[in-house]
Structure to design on (748 residues):
């Protein structure tokens, strides 16, 4: 009796899980869905309405709003679906047509499509990304990347930099018991611990995975002295606010992360390209930092308002 | 407080979405769990195993389930159905135990009396046992309802915004006010929904005294 | 691609059973967080629940508070405490303690309420003090229900202790968070399976204990 009580549920749970796991393939659903909006309400120039997606962090939401509002300003039907937490969810949504445009980062998108990709310089990343997309996701394409970058950056406190005379990642070599906080993937990705060892010969790093993309928890771990080095995205206002020292990267460990519009090919046309290219031309790394600073500022404004102000200031809307 | 007023329309929208993302799984969970619970109660050998399976299902971590689900169901990625399915699974997992307990609380003598007065098995289940199990079932619905409202906050992970979005947004901006507002809204929503079940319970079971319908 | 068999393969790889990142270490951590949380929550909820059940006071308040605590979203609580206190053991512990209190509290007061009034009155009549009534009559009789509360609390905490991995701690949540970060589904499934197995084993132990207690009465 005891045995059945334990074994039965185990068996059933196993059966349930394996049944569920044999379900359909995610890629099958590509192109079959039109829930992204009413396809009959095509805009004046006959193009399909565009739904811009975003991830669930401020910069991504602001960029999505910028795309959408810039398109609308030129008479193209566009709306947004913001706040999509997981990358598999928004890439999946692009593939199944729930959304049609997304502000991506060149390096991250490349790593997502090809985990073994090794390109780091901006042009190399863009070239690799274009060819990888063509072979793996023919329904999707990237437009011309902007110069604006928001990439991983290794930061130390000013105190730590002065005490250990550290200015570059190379200077970290030989520091005993070095500890580092970053997103969990830093442990295995080429730009993370493996790359630090390969390019700079840094080993024995004590790694603390914090799942907030260099957000408040990572920052606090660094400023409170729990870790020596923190991976924080380079356009995060907290870097300058806390006078952190961003370490130089002479060996090009960290991959380029240019902001680039990722779009469904069937939603792309010359009018859309013209609008998005004009936006990309105006975007700069400094602009991203300023947008983030406003968004995180004491007023805590809405992403849509921050985007509208930027478009107006740059004559795009 | 000013931020709350400035963003009131957005928060109200998130709260509405949150509300129906919670109500649907609770109702579906109830409808599915009551028959399963009845079977678990009647079927002596497999019954306890059935209840155990249900409580084990509850321990399947929600994060992987949410992310993998669209590819298993063949649904699109931003479809709220994904969230509803996950929450319904958890609701059933919790409800089955209280449904089985509820039917267990019905006196066998009453059931025998019904049988003696010529009620069929189906009539006994629906007309005698179900109403008598009502109070325990209601208590179960109330527990499921509060925890579903709370659990629903994970849905922004797959692009279905609700009050949980206030947590991620507030966290990234180091903005504790937004998180606190999110938490308070979730609790208020849960309590309002709880009130709804209690009132529905009184309407459905008028024979219970006020104290009995706890 | 079959995520489930991938998960089994991941489980069967011996390299995943050694060192700080291996299953044994992660399981010990996971059980450690669970034990710590349930211990703290018990220290708060059990005395309170016994007092409410014994005296019958504040019962309405206890029900309301239990409901409100159940509604407190674990994720929101976690992010809030992380912002206040930074990373470490505190944020997940607070969030999990809040999760564990309602079933413990409910088990304790419902357990005492289930004890027949006539029994406790008889105990008083033969000259037992209130403490003796509580310790020798009410608690032993209420034990199955109290233990039921502990059982529910442990299961919920085991299932939710994965959140400890968010702010940089260990436990079985690491497999899920790390797997999600690099889209390693087999790793996520393997981590989930171990959590489910752990819950099954603990639930089985509780079932056996509870049955033994019933038999004694």
């Amino acid at each position: 009796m005891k045995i059945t009580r334990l074994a039965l549920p185990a068996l059933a749970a196993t059966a349930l899980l394996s049944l569920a796991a044999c379900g359909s393939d995610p890629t099958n659903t590509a192109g079959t869905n039109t829930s992204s909006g009413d396809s009959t309400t095509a805009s004046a120039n006959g193009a399909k309405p565009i739904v811009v997606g975003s991830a669930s962090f401020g910069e991504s939401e602001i960029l999505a709003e910028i795309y959408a509002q810039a398109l609308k300003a030129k008479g193209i039907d566009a709306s947004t679906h913001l706040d999509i937490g997981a990358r598999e969810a928004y890439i999946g949504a692009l593939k199944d047509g729930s959304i049609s445009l997304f502000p991506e980062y060149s390096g991250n998108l490349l790593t997502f499509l090809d985990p073994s990709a090794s390109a780091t310089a901006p042009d190399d990343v863009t070239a690799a990304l274009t060819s990888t997309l063509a072979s793996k996701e023919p329904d999707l394409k990237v437009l011309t990347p902007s110069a604006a970058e928001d990439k991983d950056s290794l930061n130390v406190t000013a105190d730590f930099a002065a005490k250990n005379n550290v200015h570059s990642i190379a200077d970290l070599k030989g520091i005993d018991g070095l500890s580092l906080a970053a997103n969990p993937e830093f442990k295995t990705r080429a730009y993370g611990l493996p790359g630090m060892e390969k390019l700079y010969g840094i080993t024995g790093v004590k790694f603390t995975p914090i799942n907030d993309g260099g957000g408040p928890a990572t920052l606090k771990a660094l400023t409170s002295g729990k870790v020596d080095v923190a991976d924080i995205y380079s356009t995060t206002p907290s870097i300058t606010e806390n006078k952190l020292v961003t370490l130089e990267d002479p060996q090009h460990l960290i991959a380029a992360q240019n902001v680039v519009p990722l779009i469904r090919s069937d939603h792309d046309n010359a009018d859309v390209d013209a609008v998005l290219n004009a936006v990309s031309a105006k975007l700069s790394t400094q602009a991203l930092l300023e947008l983030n600073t406003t968004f995180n500022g004491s007023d805590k404004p809405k992403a849509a308002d921050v985007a509208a102000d930027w478009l107006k200031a740059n004559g795009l809307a | 407080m000013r931020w709350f007023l400035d963003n009131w329309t957005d928060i109200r929208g998130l709260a509405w979405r949150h509300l129906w993302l919670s109500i649907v799984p609770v109702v579906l969970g109830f409808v599915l769990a009551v028959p399963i619970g009845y079977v678990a109660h009647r079927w002596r050998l497999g019954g306890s195993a059935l209840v155990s399976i249900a409580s084990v299902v509850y321990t399947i971590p929600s994060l992987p389930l949410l992310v993998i689900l669209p590819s298993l169901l063949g649904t699109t990625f931003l479809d709220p159905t994904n969230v509803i399915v996950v929450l319904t699974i958890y609701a059933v997992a919790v409800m089955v135990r209280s449904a089985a307990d509820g039917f267990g609380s019905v006196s066998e003598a009453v059931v025998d009396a019904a049988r003696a007065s010529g009620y069929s098995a189906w009539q006994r289940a629906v007309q005698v046992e179900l109403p008598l199990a009502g109070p325990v079932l209601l208590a179960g619905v109330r527990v499921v309802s509060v925890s579903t409202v709370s659990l629903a906050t994970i849905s922004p992970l797959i692009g279905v915004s609700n009050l949980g979005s206030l947590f991620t947004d507030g966290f990234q901006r180091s903005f504790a006010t937004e998180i606190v507002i999110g938490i308070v809204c979730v609790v208020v929503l849960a309590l309002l929904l709880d009130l709804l079940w209690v009132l529905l319970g009184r309407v459905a079971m008028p024979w219970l005294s006020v104290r009995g319908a706890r | 691609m079959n995520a489930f068999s991938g998960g089994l393969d991941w489980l069967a790889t011996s390299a995943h059973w050694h060192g700080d990142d291996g299953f044994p270490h992660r399981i010990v951590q996971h059980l450690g967080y669970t034990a710590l949380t349930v211990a703290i929550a018990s220290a708060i909820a059990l005395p309170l629940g016994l007092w409410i059940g014994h005296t019958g006071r504040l019962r309405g308040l206890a029900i309301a508070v239990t409901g409100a605590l159940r509604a407190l979203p674990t994720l929101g609580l976690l992010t809030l405490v992380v912002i206040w206190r930074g990373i470490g053991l505190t944020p997940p512990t607070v969030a999990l303690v809040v999760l564990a209190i309602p079933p413990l509290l409910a088990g304790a007061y419902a357990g005492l309420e289930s004890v027949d009034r006539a029994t406790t009155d008889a105990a008083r009549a033969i000259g037992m003090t209130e403490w003796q009534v509580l310790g020798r009559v009410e608690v032993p009789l209420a034990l199955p229900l109290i233990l039921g509360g502990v059982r529910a609390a442990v299961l919920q905490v085991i299932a939710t202790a994965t959140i400890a991995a968010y702010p940089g701690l260990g436990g079985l949540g690491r497999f899920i968070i790390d797997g999600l970060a690099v889209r390693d589904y087999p790793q996520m499934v393997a981590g989930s399976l171990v959590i489910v197995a752990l819950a099954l084993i603990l639930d089985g132990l509780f079932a056996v204990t509870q049955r033994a207690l019933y038999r004694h009465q």
